[in-house]
Specification:
Mean pLDDT: 86
Order of helices and strands: HEHEHEHEEHH
CATH topology: TATA-Binding Protein
Helix content: 40-55%
Low-confidence stretches: 19-31
Shape: globular
Distance between the termini: 67 Å
Radius of gyration: 20 Å
Strand order of the largest sheet: 1-5-4-3-2
Largest sheet: 5 strands, antiparallel
Length: 167
């Protein structure tokens, strides 16, 4: 072995480099990640929030908090386009998930971002619940099923605001 050669250090450096190249190389506006789900709304921000909230309420999710980032920025005399973070809670599902791994409480209540671009286009974004299984090392079948249920519920709720396809 070469003096000062440390295989673990070399492998770690190569791994970090690969992550940086693959995961962080695209900083463009259109960069996509498999961990973030994003949809475009055909409605303005407040109507989008109303529709998504109603759709999730039908599936027993309660809107427990709304944080208005634009309003807070104005207090600092700064400007942001309308951007709100919504928190939805389903106590039955949350309790079961937190019993799977207490670190799941970092993800709950479920957060959705609703925001406008400069052109006024509204978007909804949220973390794919399937990613939480990796992040929190969830292997239990019942817990994985709950994550897939949340994924389906969010997808269906957001689907209702997307622009209708032209036929």
């Amino acid at each position: 072995m070469y003096k000062g050669f440390n295989l673990k250090r070399v492998l770690l450096t190569l791994s970090i480099g690969a992550l940086l190249i693959s995961g962080c190389s695209d900083k463009t506006k259109n960069a996509k990640t498999t961990f973030i789900k994003q949809s475009t709304s055909r409605y303005k921000i407040d109507k989008t929030i109303e529709i998504v909230s109603q759709n999730l309420a039908k599936k027993n999710y309660k809107l427990v908090y709304t944080f208005d980032h634009e309003k807070e920025a104005l207090k600092l005399k700064q400007m942001l386009y309308p951007t709100k973070t919504l928190e939805f809670s389903n106590n039955k599902i949350e309790t079961k998930l937190i019993s799977c791994n207490p670190s799941m409480s970092l993800e709950l209540p479920i957060r959705l971002a609703v925001y406008n671009e400069i052109n006024g286009q509204t978007h909804v974004a949220y973390t794919d619940p399937e990613y939480w299984s990796l992040k929190h090392n969830i292997h239990n079948n019942d817990c994985l099923k709950l994550l897939m249920l949340i994924k389906l519920d969010l997808s269906e709720a957001v689907e209702k605001i997307e622009p209708k396809e032209k036929k």
